[in-house]
Amino acid sequence: MELSVLLIKALIIVAVFGVTLLIATYSTYAERKVAAFIQDRVGPNRAGPMGLLQPLADAVKLFFKEEFVPANANKFLFIAGPSLAMLTACMSSAVIPFGNTLYINGEYIPVQAIEVNIGILYIFGVVALGVYGIMIGGWASNNKFSLLGAIRAASQNISYELAMGMSIIALLVLSGSLSLRVMAEQQGQDLFGISGMNWNIFYQPLGFLIFLVCAFAETNRVPFDLPECETELVGGYHTEYSSMGMGLYLFAEYVNIFVASAVMATLYFGGYNFPFMYDLGLPHNVVTILGTVVLFVKILLFIFFFMWVRWTLPRFRYDQLMNLGWKILIPLSILNVVLTAGTILLKDEFFK
User: Which UniProt keywords apply (predicted)?
Assistant: First the structure.
């Protein structure tokens, strides 16, 4: 591979990492603006024009605040907890295809940091490690409220990852691959004569609904934010944190929201594919750039949905959270797998 191609690949990796952090940063600003709109308030409007510099002001404030470590806390683990949460959050976006391919110097370069043929397993594995950051921080704080929040996070993740995994199995039966890029390419095929519209949402509406609900639980968002339930646990697993320790926990949540939105857009809504993408007669690179823009529009819409739900729905009780996961979502996800496999078998028999 030529040096220029390697440099372009390195630029794509840096760009993916930078865009992930940028969107997560301004998600904090968007969250406050959405909350203000729903509650008939103005929201941030002091730092910069229309408050656009508010995320930078928050970052400076957290960076310069005193780092407080409780006297009886395990200092090493206390620092390692938020660091691990942030590390795993940033690693998740590496395998997401943010565009098709760019044709440069005779090479087709995928707009993706890393392409592995088990991309969805990679994301599940990394996301599953993220809860250890919460558990370590909650336990190391030597605070009963923090520990209760960490226990809630662990049990919540176990409960909802099962249903989420089963919803993905139905999708894997359809696509026959664990690669996110392969799944995205398959959704670029024709549907009813329209190119780029063969989206999985048309084949897996129940699977998408299950995945969406589980995504809220995995990111600890309302109505599933029991690990940081302030009415019961003060601040949950980050009660004892201040300065950048708390900042990393809060920022990791927004990175996880971005990753969850990108995964849902890629798995169910065509990823970088859009209607009539191959019927416009545009150059390959132009179509790729348009596809990347379309994917980010889909991601931003999902992020807005996360925020909309937070400021309109009440929090579940913990028993309701567990009942929904074990008694409703897991049976539904198993039924979805059976229906999907049965439909494929009947289709194969019919078209023999």
Answer: Cell membrane, Membrane, NAD, Quinone, Translocase, Transmembrane, Transmembrane helix, Ubiquinone
